[in-house]
Amino acid sequence: MNPVIHDAVQKQRACFLSGKTKDLSFRKDMLRALAQIIRNSESKIIDALYDDMKKPEVEAYASEIAVVKHEISYVLSNIDYWTRTRKVHTPKQLLPSKSFIIPEPRGVALIISPWNYPFNLALMPLVSAIAAGNCSIIKPSEYSPHTSDLLDEIITSVFDPVFVRVINGDVEVARSILEERFDYIFFTGSTSTGRRVMEAGARFLTPMTLELGGKSPCIVDSDINVEYAARRIAWAKYFNAGQTCIAPDYLFVHKAIKKDLLEALGKNIRKFYGDNSMLNPDYARIINSNHFSRLVNLMAEGKIIIGGRTDEAGLSIEPTVIDDVNPEFRIMQEEIFGPILPVMGYKDIDQVIAFVNSRPKPLSLYVFSRDRKVQDMILSRTSSGGACVNDAMVQFESEELPFGGVGESGMGAYHGKAGFDAFTHYKSVVRNSLCFDLPFRYAPYRYKLSLARWLF
Description:
Helices cover 41% and strands 18% of the residues. It is of the alpha/beta class. It folds into two domains: 3-212 and 406-429, 3-Layer(aba) Sandwich (Aldehyde Dehydrogenase, Chain A, domain 1); 217-397, 3-Layer(aba) Sandwich (Aldehyde Dehydrogenase, Chain A, domain 2). The strands form four sheets. Strands 10-13-14-9-8-15-16 form a seven-stranded mixed beta sheet, sandwiched between helices. α13 (372-381) links the parallel β15 (364-368) and β16 (386-389). α4 runs parallel beside α5 (120-132). It starts with a helix and ends with a helix. The mean pLDDT is 96.
């Protein structure tokens, strides 16, 4: 047990038990303070993200800063309604009682965030945790050190560490944190690490949200607008150099339009990033050398038809498309998490659906088709955390849509009300009167069966 970490958790537990964080005005003030420091720190955040992975300024603002600011605004607009005690119907056998549901915070929460969107995926769940009235410890990824250090600086400047605290460090620090008892764990990362987090939490029966990943399929029917489909697929796949858990992981394209779609993909990639994307400031870089080497090895099988060049010194891989892919290739066995798109052709949509269903359930699924029957068939016969029809990745942007996985792609959801719900326990309460008492519930039960039948 790490004494520094243990002390931090115990101080947060004492803060929570004081009742301070349950005060609605306090929660609102903390959220407004967080919004203000984000506004004041935008240039620092963009610089840190560039230092970690050369994330383009527009991508950094849109996917890391703007979404968090919008989430805070949305939560502040709805928190009064979400936190109210709700009266519900009382069945006649409980009369004259009254029944209520009271939202209450879970307690001390642990948020473990990843490196690919290190600002967004640390603070989005924190906004939900604060709104629900919890204390929180954030463990950012050690693979994005500049952003992790900035997170510590920002959080320390706004919050008392007994309320919110960042603990940076390597995998050993993470293991030490997981030795502590928390009231809720929110983890974003790989499926393999998610299993270890779940094992650690199981010792204390800790409830948790696991935002994992998986291989998100993109199915392209023959009845489409080829140009629009190619443009949206290319944007979603190569945003953040493909290092997005909901990026299209592999492409199933109807053979009737496969040639046209691949040509359109190549044209749009060049339009986005030029002839040398590795020198383009609008194209991010791979996070580290280990991840770079893994991605290069994935490119060994199949036929590279777009891109394929790499720069180990600059940790950059061109937007790449690989054709003639066999389902048994390694690239089809693990989540890619990089700018490589394997492509398979098909004629029978039933075979595509069978293939998707034979694999672990993905975090997202994408369908491009004008045919409503095809859209509905794929959506109804497959299971995924979320889905888009004729677009990709945009489901993450809606605070009205719960975001989360299913099966091996995760459990639980967040964003908007779903995030508040994740960090909230809904306590059921029956309030009776002591002014009088009805004797029918008590023994002896002779002659009371007919009354019980009527009541229940």
